[in-house]
Write a structure and sequence with these properties.
SH3 type barrels; 2 helices; 2 domains; alpha+beta; single chain
Length: 118
């Protein structure tokens, strides 16, 4: 009723012969790394440098937006702590890393609802 099935033995390789397709893998991996570098790693490191430079250049009197969306005026900087005036009688301390951007004139007009012309 049942018959015995035998698998065909693989062809014996000649000495010094490479496995098929191994020569194509290395160049493909190099190309993939280059693509990942230019589309992911390089832009991220550039963004980190810009953020670090922005945080180092914050000074008293700058208007900033925190990562939580709070808009405030820098009143004091003590090391890694920035004091923001968020209303006429309220000041809050934040770490410098919590500041996401410095408000420019274009952003200020956008916050007030004015149209910007370019």
């Amino acid at each position: 009723m049942f018959t015995t099935a035998y698998a065909k033995a693989p062809n014996p390789e000649k000495p010094g012969q490479k496995a098929p397709g191994m020569g194509n893998i290395l160049p493909m991996m190099i190309v993939m790394f280059v693509i990942i570098y230019f589309f992911m790693i390089r832009p991220q490191s550039k963004r980190q440098k810009e953020t670090k430079l922005m945080l180092e250049n914050i000074k008293k009197g700058d208007k900033v937006i925190t990562s939580g969306g709070i808009l405030g005026l820098v009143t004091a900087i003590k090391g890694n702590i920035v004091t923001l005036k968020i209303s006429s009688n309220a000041e809050v301390d934040f770490k410098k890393g919590a500041i996401s951007s410095v408000v420019t004139q274009e952003v200020e007009k956008e916050l007030k609802g004015e149209k910007t012309t370019k």
